[in-house]
Design goal:
By secondary structure, the protein is of the alpha/beta class. Helices cover about 30% and strands about 25% of the residues. The chain is globular, with a radius of gyration of 30 Å. It starts with 13 loop residues before the first strand and ends with a helix. The relative contact order is 0.09.
């Protein structure tokens, strides 16, 4: 029975509150009509709407209803719960009501934004139905309490660039033990390669290296270089992380950085720190200010001749070093993995890799550096001076054939280099651009300074670069301001290629089960309200691991992330949401089926009963349908609660009307549905999104009840590939076959894996599936009753 009351439970008093969202909702949905409709529902004691429900006056309306009218179930119809659920939960807490006695109904991203922009009666009708689903569910809500347990107050930071360095120092100063893992022999990241920083043109090394040294001598920072994350297990607050310490060949405690090993080393290889513009030895130190200040052996190049080992005065070299694995117990993980530059070789029309004087802007950085391969003199590959140089902006970025996004900093670092080359080195500079994006403090001023210095700007996308018979580089481009096709010659061309996620980020993200976006960077929990939280509790991100950023924004990110991590581990106890599975002991017989299916080993058998670790449990709910005795219940997503939602959204169908239920996992999948609304991506109003912890929680009851209550088609959308492949695909396919027992076409049920990078496919799926169901027509009442009788639903 969906509306079955527990014995002794008093009749609830429901308050329904609808937000206009400053017109974002009310421009499409008739909010007054909605409120008038819901007022008459049983147990509703107050129904109101407000221009901005999340504002202080809006929150006070809810608080007053709780205190003065005795409201003990709150339904909020507004934007996505990803934005303001916690806001309204805090209102309940302040008003003396359990924060879990709230039902949040998304009528913005999933209704007004998806079915606007003009007033839409169907969107209004859908809003009423969605709110009815929330109302029905609210009648079945139960108070829950946050779970807490002891945690590790140590922190793992992955990435030793300026983001990782800043966060590590901040957290160390707050008293936390920090393990800073860097895959290179030294920390510093890409910033260590830079000469000057825009817009102030201050020395990059002067800013960076003192902070690097601070990391090296801070007693609260355990610096692990030549290291990579190998394996992660455990749960928020208590992660067990295996770190592979790659063979360095040099004991950093013994090494005196005398450099004797490099002098005798017979092997020379390309120097990656100088972007391949010079050579280094197999025994090397990355750059003079490296931290730790110790040499390393490149075992990919080393011949193990033994000369370095023989001459080392500190006996610090071990050519038999095979590396080792160490284990760390940490409470939180912060990803500061930085960026790499796009492979310019892919830009075939620009001749990179064919003509030696076509270089990248990072290579130009090294050429202008006093510690670079040419000592700060900009030279051509043949050693001659460069008198005229072209800088090509958006070389591969803002281009759907290569990288569709803007890297944000390319304009500014190119302006910086153009100014330095012209003003300080006397080199003629021409910048080819599509748009100059100078959006930060002092950025526009640098743009004007570059123009005043004599840098030439040509608005137009470069079509091709080639070398003439005299060895000069010819740049062909259309000047869009004059309409002229230009062919100009230069001694050197520098390509401003985009920033891309670093190699290994995808693999690391898979180990941590952290979703990546379409661009390959880490997806934040919310781009505005939670910009440094990942979608996984206890794992945070900052800097260019999230998206391209300049140094200022990266440092700001790192400081913000450090604050969030510190807040997360502020006491010796860690808390977790009570929205996890629990075992009903009196029903459990210890069969162990749940243990078999749990993807994170969060369930064990203790004294012939299943036991769940709520901190290790990721809340997927895969164990729920696996239990043959229905002894596992998902708190705040019980079968009773989900069926109540279905009954609400599917009620009061018009004759011949088609309705489709789309079950969507509330983490990745739900985020994608929100993004559809954010993009104003339209799809049919008859699609009703019902959030579930993950689609692995769905059993035959959920699917059959959908059809019994009025659904004509059911979609199951999962954004987690592992859960989809392991559970959803097989289970939903089997359920589709079972539908035929009731005379229901199996094609009325469909499952789909839609990860966040391709969330727009959901709109296509909604349209296509709606067309299919319309061809089938509404499911007959006879078939619905047959299903209902088999389940004894009411």
């Amino acid at each position: 029975m969906v509306k079955k009351r527990l014995k002794g439970r008093k009749m609830p008093k429901v308050g329904i509150f609808v937000c206009e969202c400053g017109g974002n909702i009310s421009d499409v949905i008739d909010v007054k009509q909605v409120v008038d409709a819901v007022k008459g529902w049983k147990d509703v004691v107050v129904a109101k709407y407000h221009r901005y429900l999340c504002s202080k006056p809006g929150q006070e309306i809810i608080a007053e209803a709780i205190k003065k009218q005795g409201v003990d179930r709150v339904v909020v119809a507004s934007c996505t719960p990803r934005m303001h659920l916690t806001t309204f939960q805090s209102v309940l807490e302040r008003s003396g009501l359990n924060p879990y006695l709230i039902e949040f109904v998304n009528i913005r991203e999933h209704d007004s934004w998806a079915h606007g922009p003009r007033p839409n009666p169907e969107a209004t009708r859908k809003a009423i139905n969605l709110i009815r689903g929330g109302y029905e569910r609210s009648l079945n809500l139960e108070p829950l309490e946050t779970i807490k347990d002891k945690c590790s107050r140590e922190i793992l930071i992955v990435g030793g660039g300026i983001a990782g360095i800043t966060a590590a120092l901040e957290l160390a100063d707050l008293g936390f033990k920090v393990h800073l893992v860097e895959r290179r022999p030294s920390i510093g990241g890409n910033m260590a390669k830079l000469t000057k920083l825009f817009p102030t043109l201050d020395c990059a090394q002067c800013i960076l290296t003192p902070r690097m040294a601070d990391v090296g001598r801070n007693p609260n920072i355990n610096l692990l270089t030549c290291a990579e994350v190998q394996e992660v297990s455990g749960r928020p607050g208590n992660y067990l992380v295996k770190i592979f310490m790659k063979p360095r060949g040099v004991d950093v405690e013994k090494c005196r950085s005398c450099g004797v090993c490099a002098k005798v080393c017979p092997v020379s290889v390309s120097d990656e720190f100088n972007e391949g513009l010079s050579q280094r030895k197999a025994a090397y130190i990355e750059f003079p200010q490296a931290v730790p200040s110790a040499y390393a052996i490149d075992f990919n190049a080393c011949t193990k001749c033994g000369k370095c080992e023989q001459v080392c005065p500190a006996k610090a070299i071990n050519l038999n070093d095979a590396g080792k694995v160490i284990e760390l117990n940490v409470g939180a993980i912060l990803l500061a993995t930085g960026y790499e530059i796009y492979e310019a070789e892919r830009l075939e029309n620009y001749g990179y890799g064919i003509y030696k004087d076509v270089i990248t802007m990072m290579e130009l950085e090294r050429l202008t550096s006093g510690t670079g391969p040419t000592g700060g003199y900009v030279k051509r590959a043949d050693g001659s001076d460069v008198r005229k140089i072209a800088i090509v902006l958006c070389a591969g970025s803002r281009d759907k054939n290569y990288i569709p996004y803007c890297s944000r900093i390319c304009c500014m670092y190119s302006l910086k280099q153009a100014y330095v080359l012209k003003k300080m080195l006397g080199i003629d500079v021409t910048v080819y651009y599509m748009d100059i994006r100078a959006t930060g403090k002092g950025y526009e001023d640098l743009y004007w300074r570059a123009q005043e210095a004599g840098v030439v700007f040509i608005r137009g996308k470069v079509a091709e670069i080639w070398q003439d018979n005299n060895g000069k580089l010819i740049v062909q481009a259309e000047d869009t301001l004059t309409g002229e096709i230009r062919e100009d010659e230069y001694d050197m061309v520098a390509l401003a290629v985009p920033m891309v996620p670093p190699a290994g980020l995808k693999d690391l993200a898979e180990k941590l089960k952290v979703p990546l976006g379409e661009d390959g960077f880490i997806t934040e929990k919310h781009p505005k309200l939670d910009p440094v939280d990942s979608l996984v509790t206890g794992i945070f991100a900052c800097g260019c691991s999230l998206s391209p950023k300049d140094v200022r924004d990266t440092v700001s990110d790192a400081l913000g992330a450090a604050a969030k991590v510190a807040s997360f581990l502020k006491s010796e106890y860690i808390t977790t949401s009570p929205e996890k599975v629990v075992v009903i002991s009196e029903l459990c017989n210890g069969c162990g089926e749940c243990v078999k299916v749990c993807p994170v080993n969060a369930i064990s058998i203790y004294e012939a009963k299943a036991k769940v670790d709520p901190f290790q449990c990721i809340g997927c709910g895969a164990c729920v349908p696996s239990c043959p005795r229905e002894a596992i219940e998902f708190k705040n997503a019980t079968i009773r609660q989900i069926l109540a939602t279905l009954k609400g959204v599917l009620a009061e169908k018009a004759p011949g009307e088609i309705r489709i239920v789309a079950f969507v996992d509330k983490s990745v999948g739900y985020t994608g549905m929100d993004f559809l609304g954010l993009d104003r991506e339209n799809y049919p109003e008859n699609v009703y999104i019902v959030a579930v912890p993950s689609t692995a929680v769905l059993g035959s009851k959920h699917i059959l009840a959908s059809f019994a209550y009025g659904a004509d088609g059911v979609l199951v959308i999962e954004g987690n590939e592992e859960l989809y492949e392991k559970f959803t695909r097989k289970r939903i396919t089997e359920m589709g076959r079972d539908l035929t027992k009731f005379g229901v076409e199996s094609m009325r049920l469909r499952h789909s894996y839609i990860p966040l990078p391709v969330y727009k496919k959901a709109a296509e799926l909604f349209n296509m599936f709606t067309d299919r169901i319309r061809k089938f027509g509404p499911l007959s009442e006879e078939k619905r009753k047959k299903i209902e009788q088999s389940m004894q639903l009411s």
